Amino acid sequence: MRVRVVVDYRPALRARTGVGEYVHHLAAAYARRQQAGDALVLFASSWKDRAAPGSPLAQAVTVSDHRVPVGALNWLWHRREWPPVEWLTGQADVVHALHPLLIPASRAAQVVTIHDLHFLAQPEHSVREIRRDYPLLAARHARRADAVVTISQYTAQLIEMTFSVPRSRIFVCPPGAPSWQALGRTPNLPRDGYILFVGTLDPRKHLGSLLDAYVAAREREPRLPRLVIAGAMAPGADAWADRWSRPPLAGHVEYRGYVPDTGREALYAGARLLVLPSLDEGFGMPVLEAMSAGVPVLVSNRGALPEVIGAAGLMVDPDDVRAFLTALVALATDESAATAAAERGLERARAYTWDAAAARLRDAYESAVARRSARG
């Protein structure tokens, strides 16, 4: 089957956070696997940001780049379901949104991606456009979609139960592990390495529990490594920043802000341990990054995190400060335990590849085209 696919590349136009990295690498893997006669079109629209997917991706795809403000186009697409994307990109067999809402199409099969359902659980922590449209429209659009793509079995089950989407129409395409230049061959346990947290600083990440555990752990083990926090500030994060700027955390916590893709390897190279105490995760990409870099991981037992790490790392209840600090001290100071966890993480990370995700994505597209054809 020859398929012409239009993928919404807009999340990758600026600093690529999780969704932007996902679409960029998934598109690149899909382009590598294209069959003769296939075509992949990256759709971009922004008043000031231009699409620059970079080589070799740019050589294998067509870029449909438009100087249209994102907010204006999304309002028309979400609220008026107009104009059809084919007016901007030409004819397509599939149009793939990298968010839960359909992109209007006149003839193409419609695919949506749902990374998580946090916009339902905590809409007040979402940006204005998401608060306005996602809780109202996402369930309806998911049921109408010819296929729904997600990133974990955990999120697939939530979509099935919450939105009443048949499981046969949901396709799990987990992200692939990154390819590092130097890391990823052996455990990464630098003697002067730090404890690392990576992620946007929003309430779901539960950073306060990490700060609590870190304070208690330092009381037990004063030589505990410093804590490095990497991630963009979200509304409400100022209270955490104020806390780590004062005793007993002052001088022991370093905030680095958002670290782009080009700086990730250096960030993990300096880490002795990654900690992610989230209350919920649709996947938890920093965990896969750390495992693939040979960095031991300590995560909460919530959301998709148990699914992602398997038996590779340590899991704790994020609200159990005593268990949290015990695990933190163990991985930070016990060389044998840290080495064993890092080795298990390296093995676990090998199960996640972009080629496997792209193959599953192809299944989603072919299923969507068949369903669209059956609808006439």
Gyration radius from CA atoms, angstroms: 21 Å
Q: What is the count of DSSP helices, taking H or I runs of 4+ residues? A: 15
CATH superfamily of the largest domain: Glycogen Phosphorylase B
**Can you tell me the number of structural domains?**
2
Any idea what the CATH architecture of the largest domain is? Answer: 3-Layer(aba) Sandwich
- How many strands appear in the DSSP assignment? 13
The CATH class of the largest domain, by name, is Alpha Beta
Gross morphology: globular
Low-confidence stretches: none
Beta content comes to 15-25%
Label the structural class.
alpha/beta
For the sheet with most strands, the description reads: 7 strands, parallel
Termini Cα gap: 18 Å
Helix content: 40-55%
Classify the fold: give the CATH topology of the largest domain. Rossmann fold
Mean pLDDT level:
93
Order of helices and strands: EHEHEHHEEHHEHEEHEHEHEHEHEHHH
Strand arrangement in the largest pleated sheet: 3-2-1-4-5-6-7
Describe the structure.
This protein has helices at 18-32, 57-60, 70-80, 86-89, 118-121, 128-144, 153-163, 207-220, 238-244, 264-269, 285-292, 305-309, 321-333, 335-349, 354-375, and strands spanning 4-8, 39-45, 62-66, 94-97, 109-113, 147-150, 170-172, 194-198, 227-230, 253-257, 271-276, 297-300, 314-316. The protein has 376 residues and is an alpha/beta fold. It has 2 domains: 4-176 and 353-375, 3-Layer(aba) Sandwich (Rossmann fold); 194-349, Glycogen Phosphorylase B (Rossmann fold, 3-Layer(aba) Sandwich), CATH 3.40.50.2000. The chain has a 7-stranded parallel beta sheet with strand order 3-2-1-4-5-6-7, with helices on both faces. A 6-stranded parallel beta sheet has the order 10-9-8-11-12-13, with helices on both faces. The chain is globular, with a radius of gyration of 21 Å.
